[in-house]
Write a structure and sequence with these properties.
The chain is of the alpha/beta class. The chain has 2 domains: 43 residues; 195 residues, Aminopeptidase. Helix content is 50%, strand content 14%. The protein is built from 6 helices and 8 strands; from the N terminus they run αβββαβαββαββαα. Strands 4-1-5-8-6-7 form a 6-stranded mixed β-sheet, with helices on both faces. The protein has a two-stranded antiparallel ribbon with strand order 2-3. Strand 2 and strand 3 form a beta hairpin. The longest helix has 42 residues. It is globular, with a radius of gyration of 22 Å. 38% of the residues are buried.
């Protein structure tokens, strides 16, 4: 009787052990990405720049591709470089995740190139007091057009930042979404400082593509985005001084 009792207890224990082990393995698999994000976030807390600018994609990653093999990565970089010059003239110290046709996958050791590139940008974003990532969109529906501003959901200061930037963007580009769009799954938005991801238009839409490839439009957009950042910094500083 005693042996049976020991056998039953052992069997239950083994069953529980394997269930627990399976759960831990699954948890490790699904949380590895989030754990990497958390590690990068807490590892680099020092603020180096007033503003960190990110031109999406780069290197072997072209981003969205418009008709005629026109690559998003080139046009968003041009906008960001102009933004750097504009904001620098306003006395801000500006950092860039990239200033040429490269990626930043070298900043992180583990994972595939695309994952390392994204985590590298996330790491750099935490060096700014405020950040913005500039992209161009694409979809199978060629009627979709206009700009979209994304911010981290449930962060009031990020929402205010998004509203101020959207107001300026609306002066030079039609809007796909009339209000800033909250998200919980976009990595760069999870950075410690307020960060936005702005889709300036759709490479898949002929009208938007004509704008994006127009240097004058890109300059207008660079000024609009920069003014949105300046408006937010002024609002934030005013809030903090009260």
């Amino acid at each position: 009787m005693g042996r049976c009792f020991v056998f039953i207890i052992s069997k239950k224990w083994l069953s529980s052990f394997f269930i627990l082990l399976s759960c831990l393995i699954l948890l490790a698999f699904f949380s590895r990405y989030s754990l990497g994000i958390h590690t990068l976030s807490v590892a680099r807390q020092e603020i180096i720049y007033d503003v960190m600018l990110d031109a999406g994609h780069g290197g072997i990653d072209p981003g969205a591709i418009g008709e005629g093999d026109l690559y998003e990565k080139h046009y968003v970089l041009d906008i960001v470089l102009q933004m750097r010059d504009i904001l620098t003239k306003h006395g801000l110290k500006v950092g860039l995740t990239r200033d040429s046709d490269v990626d930043v996958s070298h900043l992180v050791d583990n994972g595939g190139r695309h994952r390392r590139d994204l985590l590298g940008r996330f790491k750099l974003m935490n060096q700014g007091a405020v950040g913005i990532s500039v992209h161009a969109n694409a979809t199978k529906d060629k009627t979709q057009r206009g700009a979209i501003v994304f911010y981290q959901k449930d962060r009031y200061i990020n929402e205010m930042y998004a509203k101020l930037v959207l107001e300026e963007v609306a002066k030079v580009q039609v809007l796909n979404e009339q209000h800033p769009v909250p998200r919980t799954t976009l990595l760069l938005l999870k950075s410690n400082p307020p960060v936005l991801l702005v889709e300036i238009g759709f490479m898949s839409n002929p009208d938007d593509l004509a704008k994006i490839t127009d240097p004058q439009f890109r300059t207008s957009l660079a000024h609009a985005l920069s003014q949105g950042i300046l408006n937010f910094i002024a609002w934030r500083d005013g809030e903090q001084s009260e």
